[in-house]
Specification:
single chain; SET domain-containing protein; SET_dom_sf; 667 residues; two-stranded antiparallel ribbon
């Protein structure tokens, strides 16, 4: 099945469904004690139950508690993880007695494909038995459990459930929605996204902007009402709702698609994840493009043989093949790249490097999350980015060679690493601020950690924006990353450590209301305010490209003043001369000279850690750095808010969050 735009074109940044009520839903086990099991909102602290107590279902109000379905659900809490089992149990009232094993409530069960997998089939059979045992306590006389139907219900959940994210971006549960939502197919270049409404008062008026504007393929409608199909109703108004919104212009009759997986991954990983969960191979325009798109070229083709390494591998094969002189990159590309044996060897190195680098990043990340040592995490990941996996030896068919594998700056593992480093440096700063506060010392080092955290957040935003320029479906990721960068920069500018500098003779930044910080060079603040007030009509009038262009022009001058300050002392970040210009990529992605970039502008880190005022002055630690950092943070946050308004709407929780971060005082 598929959903298509109805009888009218849909512009960018418009709601294309009303708030859709779920057919079934369930909190993840780890959130049962802190969130309402009906609306998924956070419980008041007085309602919390300690985690070591018996598992139970908690509610925020009598209205939500009325959605408690059956005592059988409580029995499933003793078989963790139970969220998919509880969601399947809640789905059964919609499926009896006329459902088939192929579709329930119009949703594909995918049972045949799922049961063909040994591991998944074992899980489904175990889950169906657990549901059957839980239901026996409340079954009426002569009522029986249909094992096949129970398996089919669980398969519907595994195939159609989506992760529900709270306002902080955490996955707190799952929900299964009817065909209005679930029939929207996946694409790696989607034209729509979706957002959740998590609130005790989540009944949303069905205004003209939120009417259903999409149809199942092959059906007709009168004023948005389907003629040929009747969709099942949701769970009596309870549960987290979902709204679908356009992120591109969608023509009348065009298929509407959303993303089922992370779009900042290379094609092979995307396809692997989609097959593992949904049992289909994606054949969207992005996946079948030949040659691959620029984005997938960066994320996939260069994911293991990194730039300088490409040249090293070529030289290695020159020697192995008996060439009397080293060949340059162009000569090797012309005369040998077409060789099947060379392609085979390069593919071997690429696959091995990908596996080893992925394992290393996962290992360091798991250790960071388990042990809580951000300093060790930062050192290991930055060493990996700078030096690669120097200790690894890869065996080749004709002998062994010590090779150095490094990540390209736009490789998907590098982007993930920037995210982790921004978080780890932020944690280090927080820990150091607490330590210095307790001992009454100055917090220069803590400010340094905040500075580098902000730099990584900014690098992540500019890197994904570069990819977004080639793949506009990355709009949601770009909005989130620009917002995060803005928050990090504002947190740095507002840090109390600057107040300590003020005591040493440095002036303190005057944090006046946002309205006092309007930029004379761009109209970003005005665009943000108009977006809040009038929504998508004004987005079109303002011109998305025009707003983006003026934003980049404006922050260009700010970055010239701020970027050098942010990256001082960090060996990896210093090779990025201009994080928005991308001149650091070199003339060709294939021959980017990592070592040459690292050899320039070495900074003595000991100078930064000098806690004397003279050491700070030597690094240009003046009030102007703080003012420029603040202004850059405001620009990034406003632009992130402008993009978030397109993705989530002017009244979403995300826009409220951005207004709060800006200390926005609207009319």
């Amino acid at each position: 099945m598929e959903m298509r735009a109805g009888e009218e074109d849909i512009e960018i940044g418009e709601d294309i469904t009303p708030s859709v009520i779920p057919l079934s839903y369930a909190l993840h086990d780890s959130f049962l004690h802190s969130h309402c099991s009906s609306c998924f909102s956070r419980l008041p602290s007085t309602n919390f139950t300690q985690h070591h107590h018996a598992p139970t279902l908690l509610y925020c109000s009598s209205i939500c508690s009325s959605s408690h379905f059956s005592p059988a659900e409580l029995n499933l809490l003793h078989s963790p993880p139970s969220s998919d089992l509880r969601a399947a149990l809640r789905l059964l009232p919609h499926s009896l007695p006329s459902s088939s094993i192929n579709r329930i409530c119009g949703l594909l069960t995918n049972r045949e494909k799922l049961m063909a997998d040994e591991e998944i089939s074992a899980h489904v059979r175990y889950g169906a038995k657990a549901i059957a045992a839980a239901r026996r306590m409340e079954m009426v006389e002569n009522e029986k459990n249909d094992a096949v139907l129970l398996e089919a219900a669980l398969c519907v959940v595994l195939t159609n459930a989506v992760e529900v994210h709270d306002n902080e971006g955490r996955s707190i549960g799952i929900a299964v929605y009817g065909p209005n939502f679930s029939w929207i197919n996946h694409s790696c270049s989607p034209n729509a996204c979706y957002r959740f409404i998590i609130s005790p008062d989540n009944v949303m008026p069905f205004s003209e902007e939120s009417r259903l504007r999409i149809l199942p393929a092959g059906t007709k409608s009168d004023n948005g009402v389907h003629n040929n199909i009747e969709f099942p109703k949701g769970c009596s108004g309870s549960g987290p709702r979902v709204i679908v919104r356009s992120i591109k212009r969608i023509k009348r009759g065009e298929e509407v698609t959303v993303a089922y997986t992370d779009l900042l991954q290379p094609k092979e990983i995307r396809r692997s994840e989609l097959w593992g969960k949904y049992r289909f191979i994606c054949c969207c325009t992005r996946c079948i493009a030949s040659p691959p798109s620029h984005v997938d070229h960066v994320l996939q083709r260069l994911e293991s043989v990194k730039c300088v390494l490409v040249y090293e591998v070529f030289q290695f094969f020159c020697k192995q093949k008996g060439f009397f002189r080293p060949m340059n990159y162009e000569e090797i590309s012309a005369s040998n790249l077409a060789s099947s044996s060379l392609n085979s060897e390069l593919s071997f190195y690429r696959d091995e490097a990908t596996r080893k680098l992925t394992d290393y990043v996962d290992e360091v990340t798991d250790e960071y999350l388990a042990v809580g040592d951000p300093e060790s995490c930062c050192k290991k990941l930055e060493n990996m980015l700078i030096t690669g996996l120097l200790d690894e030896q890869l065996e080749v068919r004709e002998g062994k060679s010590q090779l150095n594998f490094r990540l390209h700056p736009l490789h998907h593992l590098a982007l993930n690493t920037y995210t982790i480093l921004a978080s780890a440096y932020k944690i280090r700063a927080s820990d150091l601020f607490c330590l210095h506060s307790e001992v009454g010392g100055l917090s220069w080092e803590a400010l340094s950690m905040s500075r580098i955290s902000a730099a990584y957040s900014l690098l992540l935003a500019t890197s994904t924006y570069h990819l977004f320029c080639f793949e506009s479906s990355l709009l949601v990721s770009v909005a989130n990353f620009w917002t995060s960068a803005g928050e990090s920069l504002l947190a740095l500018a507002k840090s109390s450590a600057w107040d300590s500098l003020g005591k040493c003779g440095f002036p303190v930044l005057n944090r006046s209301p946002l309205a006092m910080h309007k930029c004379s060079k761009c109209s970003l603040l005005e665009s943000f305010e108009v977006n809040l007030s009038f929504g998508q009509d004004q987005i079109r009038k303002a011109g998305f490209d025009s707003v983006s262009s003026s934003f980049l022009d404006c922050i260009g001058s700010l970055l010239q003043e701020v970027w050098g300050f942010l990256i001082q002392g960090d060996r990896y970040l210093k090779m990025f001369k201009d994080p928005t210009g991308f001149s650091w990529l070199g003339k060709s992605l294939d021959i980017w000279d990592f070592d040459a970039e690292l050899s320039h502008n070495d900074v003595d880190f000991n100078c930064w850690t000098n806690k004397s005022v003279s050491g700070i002055e030597a690094l240009g630690y003046t009030d102007q750095w703080r003012i420029n950092t603040f202004q850059l943070g405001v620009h990034c946050l406003l632009y992130g808010g402008f993009l978030a308004g397109i993705c989530y709407g002017p009244h979403s929780h995300w826009m409220s969050h951005i207004r709060g971060a800006l200390n926005y005082e609207g009319k």
